[in-house]
Amino acid sequence: MSLVTLLPFIVLIGAMFLMTRSAKKKQQAAAQMRTEMQPGTGVRTIGGMYATVKEIQEDTVLLEVAPGVHAVYAKNSIGAVLDDAEYNRIVHGDDSDSTLVPDDASSLTDGEPVEADAADDVAKIDLGKKAEDETVAKEAKSAETKDAKADGESDAK
Fold first, then answer.
1. What is the C-alpha to C-alpha distance for residues 117 and 112, in angstroms, rounded to an integer?
2. pLDDT tens figures, 30-41
3. Does the residue 30 lie in any domain?
């Protein structure tokens, strides 16, 4: 057989080797993360629930999902062990590094009040039915004038 025929098989075997090696590294890192877990640390389960570790057994973990609410989970269901700052930021909303968003928009104007005169310069638009009513009235008056001319009446003064 020629080298050209064997080349696709060699590439496929090499790719499979690299993928399995990568998967094994991820599994080892996850297992090490779970063994380093200690009571009091914040975790995220693979389902996306955040909780605090209370007790660690051989294959299970007791998690406090809310104050006074405990649940037993398999160790393999822990997706990530979080550091205290990240856990508090996500769960409690404690984010001392971020800037606070004000309750009102006063800080967005750089402390300069908007003058009332600037708002008066803008032409006001009436969105009511006034213009439509005027059009209907003009059409009715025009129709009356046509009827009067048809009856022989004259508009001459």
1. 14
2. 788 887 788 999
3. yes
pLDDT at 93: 81
Q: How many domains does the chain have?
A: 2
The per-residue b/e assignment along 129-145, b for 16 or more CB within 10 angstroms, e otherwise, is: eeeeeeeeeeeeeeeee
User: Does 157 fall in a domain?
Assistant: no
Domain region containing 83:
37-97+106-148
Sheet strands (E) in the chain: 42-45, 50-56, 60-66, 69-74, 78-82
CA–CA separation, 52 and 67 (whole Å): 10
Determine phi and psi for 84, rounding to 5 degrees.
-60, -45
Q: What is the pLDDT of residues 71-98, one digit of tens each?
A: 999 988 898 888 888 888 888 787 655 5
CA-angle at 53, arms to 48 and 54, nearest 5°: 140
Averaged over 2-29, what is the pLDDT?
A: 83
147 dihedral zone (left: phi>0; alpha: psi -120 to 50; beta): alpha
